[in-house]
Amino acid sequence: MVHIEQASEPQLREQLADLLDRYDQLAAGKLALDLTRGKPGAAQVALSDALDGILEGDYRAADGTDVRNYGGLDGLAEARILFGNVLGTLPEETLVGGNSSLTLMYQVIDFALTEGLRGPESAWARREPVKFLCPVPGYDRHFSICEYLGIEMLPVRMLETGPDMDQVEGLVAADPAIKGIWCVPRFSNPSGCVYSDNTVERMARLPKLASPEFVVMWDNAYAIHSLYDDAPELASIGKWARQFDTMDGIFQFGSTSKVTFAGAGVAFMGSSERNLSTFKAHLAFQTIGPDKVNQLRHVRFLRDAETLAAHMAKHAAHIRPRFDCVLDILDRELEGTGMASWTQPRGGYFISVDALPGLASEIISLADKIGVKLTPAGATFPYGKDPEDRNIRLSPTFPSLEDLQTSIDAFALCVKIASIRQRLG
Ligand code: PLP
């Protein structure tokens, strides 16, 4: 297909007629395909079925603790070692909690907002407004937390190296109402980008430029989710933070939602010992302790860094063909047409597509009408509003390869129809 800017009007009209024929054929096929959320596929969750029954009646942790009983707000010692390794934090800087890292993130924000990380005077809500930096496109559930808690969101540009740090540093230095920033540093949701070493170093230094209660929310949800051998590594923010003495301003998160069972795994967080001890004082009013039985099951199953890596390679074997499928179709159908650009992540769960400005909602609605559900337009932006209406998040992990192929073919068709219609005016 020729570049949309170079095609003549009659060429475009002819192409559109063909495309609409194919669209009608697909509509008649009554598809029911769903690419909305980044869920692991059924074969992926089955990789961890051995969790069921793995304890075989041995409920004792390494130090003799009976995990069937109450206690241990920090989580099991061996779980803190295993998951501290994932985050790059020491066991004493690691807390292992329940089933969801999103819950831990919500609790940290809620605590900092209403009670204060350094006592009541430091509570963000003492001074209005409270603002947060949101690199865009980003993860919708981060933005929902801010919106729900009345925190004003300021979008920040994402570059190939991560958030635009010149913009970030300029904003935090100028406005003490900015209390934090959301980051998904490795295989970002949705762009798949990995923050560069320089971005990580500058992010670790950021609390020094910002208001004293500023927090970097380092959501490392895809820390170990590489798909290809050349996947870039992520520098350790903890290493830099120790050097800059900013550990108090950094909260790291992760979970096994996309390692074992989504929603029935283990979540963990890392920060300074001081932060963890204040956070635990707050947590103690909400729970007597986490589900240590599940933590022990995870430790017995995932064991050590080597076992974990071998397990993640099995996930990659499932996801890689799906990423290849999406990227191949986008290349074949849209490369050189000037109708869209997209990311080529080396890991994670998403591929991010930018359509021509003003077309994301229309493309998503065209796809919806023929039975292909995509993440709603605007979902990757604060308040659900993409100012240019162009970003679309594709989540290829859950469907079968065959369904995925049909969905992405249909998606590419919708991109072409919307783009040509716009061009024809
Ligand atoms: N963080 C990011 C960036 C995610 O993409 C997701 C799920 O898609 C989560 C957190 C949710 O994690 P959890 O299941 O541990 O709450």
Automatic annotation (TrEMBL):
Claim: tRNA-binding is one of the keywords in the record: no
Record-level Gene Ontology MF annotations: L-aspartate:2-oxoglutarate aminotransferase activity
Protein's UniProt keywords contain Transferase: yes
Any Pfam family the entry gives: Asp_aminotransf
UniProt KW keywords: Aminotransferase, Transferase
Regions crossing the membrane: none
Coiled coil: none
InterPro entries attached to this UniProt entry: AspAT_Ic, PyrdxlP-dep_Trfase, PyrdxlP-dep_Trfase_major, PyrdxlP-dep_Trfase_small
Protein name (database record): Aminotransferase
